[in-house]
Amino acid sequence: MNRTPGAREILNHSDHRAYPTPDGPWVLSMSWHDLLFMHWPVPAQELRPLIPPALHLDTFDGRAWLGVVPFRMSGVRPRFLPAVPGLSGFPELNLRTYVSAGGKPGIWFFSLDAHNPVAVRLARATFHLPYFDARMSSRKENDEISYRSVRTHRGAPPAEFVARYRPAGEPFESRPGTLENFLTERYCLYAADGRGNVRRGDIHHRLWPLRPAEAEVETLGMTGQIGVALPDTPPLLHFSDKLDVLAWAPRRLET
Questions:
Q1: What is the CA radius of gyration of the chain?
Q2: Consecutive 10-residue runs of the chain (255 residues): their mean pLDDT?
Q3: pTM of this prediction?
């Protein structure tokens, strides 16, 4: 169950995708662990001004969705190179919404905090993603994850997240047309460089193995950086134990 599959094995499972895997070789592989999806519906008009005009803001039943996603990375390595101890595993936390371009649904990251200064600088330089340095920890005891993140990036807006979370049900796979599928089954990310050019970075993985989740949140200071207030309602929660992922180099969108 915990064996990490090879790239060929991951690529052999692609029938669940909305569009084929990209041409060309993948450049990065990694595993995501102990991931919590926290999602809230928000008015689309609050997020639309924060998204580049080249991208369509995706909605479900007329509402946009904002996600806070803590997890832990391992085995992060470029193709043909081994993982480097101390650099290839670290906690990560992102604030995101959902967009599309050219019929390809993907993710727009407002921020990504990581407990790895080398990864932060490489991701900012090569993928043009808004990564930030943070002091972070992710500890697992039985099925419960204790997670803490405080942004330390010089000159960046503050962001903080402290919570305990755990799975609370049996694993399931989302079905097309459901909200769970809309929020999780996305196989690319979009990012803009310093000139405003939008790029798409493709990824591939098996269908998300989801479980219902529970969480006790002590501190949730993630959305002040974009000037959006979360609704005063409980978030939709999902947990995933582990997912193995391949990533391709980003490509500029054709305009």
A1: 17
A2: 66 91 91 97 97 97 97 86 68 98 96 91 86 96 97 96 97 96 97 89 96 98 96 97 95 83
A3: 0.93
